[in-house]
Amino acid sequence: MRVKIRRKILFSSLIFFLILFSLFLALEIFNYNKIAYGVSIAGIKVGGLTKNQAKDLLNTNFEDWQNKNIVLAYQEKSFLVLPGEIGISFGLQKTIDQAYAFGRSRNILIGITDQIAAVFSAPKSRLAPVYFFDQEKFEKLSKEKFTSLENPAQNASLVYDFQARSFETTPASEGFVFDREKLKKDLIKALDNLDNSAISLKLIKDYPDVSESETQQAKENASQILANAPFYLKYNDKTWAIDKATLLDWLEFKPVTDTQNSPLSPPTLSKGGIKGGPNKILGVSLNQDKIKDILDEISPSINQETINAQLAFSEGKVTAFSLPQDGIRVDLEASAKKINDALTSPGGFGLASAPAGKNIDLIVIKRQPVITLESINILGLTSLLGTGTSSFSGSHKSRIHNIQVGSEKFNGLIIKPGEEFSFDDNLGEVGPKQGYLPELVIKQGKTIPEYGGGLCQVSTTVFRAAVNSGLKITERHPHAFPVKYYNPQGFDATIYPPSPDLKFINDTPNNILLQSKIEGNKLTFEIYGTADGREVKIKGPTILQANRDGSMKTIFYQEIWRNGQMERQDKFPSNYKSPALYPVIQNPLE
Question: In this structure, which of 368, 403, 432, 477 has its CB flanked by the most CB atoms within 10 Å?
Fold first, then answer.
């Protein structure tokens, strides 16, 4: 009898475990390549979905939440802010990866247990989205929004009394600010559930970090710095004085940690609420932006452009006819920091009772030229592959200026073998900051003044050099109408970033070098590289049709020959409209 009972128990247990195993197996099969059934993110059910399906679903919900304003309310006043404005963004892919990892622990038992828990919507399977919180953005926006209702505490500080010729202390004062920590917690709670309900703001008392008694060291340091003035910025044999008036403009006072005299203090109420840590005192520093303004004025007398070795072609060889020169540029960041440290740090001479020196050597960055005498052969610049020339005779001063500025952008440019050259990409931005002046350009059916007018003289000349060098042209556009500067007509290339563009491929076995020069009213581009036996034949340009209104059609051919056989022929047709269709508008706003 007992044996039969034991057999029944054993059989029942076996059946139970088989059923349980079957359920586990069915769950594993169902969840294969999917997020575990029952998992949700911010209340959105994603269980049973593939990663891509969950991504589409969550992306829609995340975008919907981010496009709705969060209401921050205080009494009868409210502020509307978008989540992105206050520094909240979602990590969509990381959220998906986190959800997919649920129930897939390396420990099989833990993984199965989690999957079962998800089926019954256990709290652990209700996940929050992965988010990023930009603290700087949060502080900036909250400061802008809350200015009208907040009255932050004021730290004790120093002002200079010109009559007494000494620094005087301004008193500290308490204030009220919104509780930033509570606001952050409420925002995080809202995004955990994608909740757009209004968030209540709470004003708390704000205490200053620095009291009047904590300004004495700053007062002594600032007075010592002024007493040691003037100081001198130096580079080689050039010097610039920093007098007392400049120092007074530079000096600024901010709270710093008192590392020397104060141990960790107990938690205290301060800016924005409770905090603990080292005590703060008033510190002395120099305004870095104002220092950089002075350095900007000094820099032109120090800076010099990098000059590549200029090449010439003589007796079948490339030779240098101008020596290279290192470029020098004042490092504004490093120099400003060095000035600040020299004058305000305990080890600097600005605070010394008897300074041993008063000179601060400016830090410069040196840049070596790409083309040096040694690199000519290494880069494979052994032959003059071709040249392109054009005349800008009769151009206005502003057009000539733009041609000079633009051609320098390409002077010394190295193009690697197999690399596609883009004129627009290498040209970069075109505006007053880049040194360009307004001049006529063809745009939107008009000829109007615009910054950089005349740069097509540069692109046309580069195009001619590339064609004559036998390079493969991959993009070229003629002008809308015949332009007198680009004779012979049909051999031009217009550009206007980002499109139209001029592009060609360096299909030679080595590097090629672009080199520009201006002689009188003639612009020339030379392309140096390694000769590979190709012979270039240019047929045209030929005028196919010329009309009385100035419109015309032209064509020319670039042929590449090697060993008496033509390898490639490319044709370049141009269809020019009448110049009368593009009236000159001196003021494009009229």
Answer: 403
